[in-house]
Design goal:
Elements: H1 3-20, H2 22-29, H3 32-42, H4 49-56, H5 60-72, E1 76-80, E2 88-92, H6 94-116, H7 120-137
Antiparallel strand pairs: 1-2
Length: about 140
C-alpha cells in the first residue's frame, strides 16, 4: 500500500472538513476554557492544574491563563489542598458546571450532526478507527509508535 498517497488524500479530506465548520466547532471544544471545564467536570478524582495541562496538551503558562480567565468569569474556584499545601485543587462553581454541560451538549450535537450524514456502518467505523488511532498513539511522545 502506498501510505504516502493515502496520507495526502487524508490531509486533503481533513482540510476540506475543517472548512465546513463541523471540525472547527469540535476543535474549539477541545481547547481552552471549554476543554478545561469539561476536564474539571468529568475527570475522575481531583482536578489539578497539572492534569488540565496534560489533558489540553498546553504549557503551564497557557493553563494558568485559561484558569485565570475561567476564575474571573466565576466558573471555577481554586483552593490550596489542606493535605498537601503545594497542590491547588480546582472546582467548578454551579455557573461553571452549567457552562461545561452546555458546551458538552453543543459539541455532542455537532458531532452527532456530522456523523448523521454518514450511513450507520460508516459512522460506526469512523468512530472505531478514530478510537483505535487514539489508543495506539496515546502512549507515545510524538504521537506515533
Amino acid at each position: 500500500m502506498d501510505y504516502q498517497e493515502l496520507a495526502s488524500e487524508l490531509l486533503n479530506s481533513m482540510y476540506s472538513l475543517r472548512r465546513t465548520g463541523f471540525e472547527k466547532g469540535i476543535a474549539e471544544f477541545l481547547h481552552g476554557e471549554a476543554a478545561a471545564l469539561h476536564h474539571i467536570a468529568f475527570c475522575s478524582g481531583e482536578a489539578l492544574p497539572s492534569g488540565i495541562r496534560r489533558k489540553l496538551g498546553v504549557s503551564s503558562a497557557r493553563t494558568a491563563q485559561v484558569l485565570n480567565n475561567a476564575e474571573s468569569k466565576g466558573w471555577i474556584t481554586r483552593q490550596i489542598d489542606q493535605r498537601d499545601r503545594r497542590r491547588v485543587l480546582i472546582e467548578l462553581t454551579p455557573k461553571g458546571r452549567a457552562i461545561a454541560e452546555k458546551h458538552r451538549r453543543e459539541v455532542v450535537g455537532l458531532a452527532a450532526k456530522m456523523l448523521s450524514v454518514l450511513e450507520e456502518h460508516d459512522a460506526r467505523e469512523y468512530v472505531r478507527i478514530t478510537g483505535k488511532l487514539a489508543e495506539i498513539t496515546a502512549g507515545t511522545t510524538a504521537g506515533l509508535p
